[in-house]
Amino acid sequence: MQNRRIFFSRLAVDSRIGILDHERGTTQPLHVDAELDVAVKPPSGHDDIHDVLDYRRLREAIIDECSRAHVNLLETLVDRLAARLLRDFADVQRVRLRIGKPMAFADCAAVGIETTIERSA
């Protein structure tokens, strides 16, 4: 089976995340890098958006999951997002996510979590 990879690079999302007092009740930026391996369906030859997984829908799901409610830990958020992408998009076979908090420390560009999950056979 042929796969195609859809990717997002540094998708900026305002998120309510963190355990520190100054992180509660406010948003902070996250940067989401995502790679999604998608099963390729036989082409219809019509050059039609309905023949592929519309990456606008993936983007909306990422933004929604990252901004819907306060989450204490990046680990929790990355796991929830990976599970949602596999659950909501049947064509997605593998997800690799990297979520960074660019405002966490002044002496580095970001700190973050990365995970990879594959659909069970």
TrEMBL record:
<comment type="function">
    <text>Catalyzes the conversion of 7,8-dihydroneopterin to 6-hydroxymethyl-7,8-dihydropterin.</text>
</comment>
<feature type="domain" description="Dihydroneopterin aldolase/epimerase">
    <location>
        <begin position="6"/>
        <end position="117"/>
    </location>
</feature>
<keyword id="KW-0289">Folate biosynthesis</keyword>
<protein>
    <recommendedName>
        <fullName>7,8-dihydroneopterin aldolase</fullName>
        <ecNumber>4.1.2.25</ecNumber>
    </recommendedName>
</protein>
<dbReference type="Pfam" id="PF02152">
    <property type="entry name" value="FolB"/>
</dbReference>
<comment type="pathway">
    <text>Cofactor biosynthesis; tetrahydrofolate biosynthesis; 2-amino-4-hydroxy-6-hydroxymethyl-7,8-dihydropteridine diphosphate from 7,8-dihydroneopterin triphosphate: step 3/4.</text>
</comment>
<comment type="similarity">
    <text>Belongs to the DHNA family.</text>
</comment>
<dbReference type="GO" id="GO:0046656">
    <property type="term" value="P:folic acid biosynthetic process"/>
</dbReference>
<dbReference type="GO" id="GO:0046654">
    <property type="term" value="P:tetrahydrofolate biosynthetic process"/>
</dbReference>
<keyword id="KW-0456">Lyase</keyword>
<dbReference type="GO" id="GO:0005737">
    <property type="term" value="C:cytoplasm"/>
</dbReference>
<dbReference type="InterPro" id="IPR043133">
    <property type="entry name" value="GTP-CH-I_C/QueF"/>
</dbReference>
<dbReference type="InterPro" id="IPR006156">
    <property type="entry name" value="Dihydroneopterin_aldolase"/>
</dbReference>
<dbReference type="GO" id="GO:0004150">
    <property type="term" value="F:dihydroneopterin aldolase activity"/>
</dbReference>
<dbReference type="InterPro" id="IPR006157">
    <property type="entry name" value="FolB_dom"/>
</dbReference>
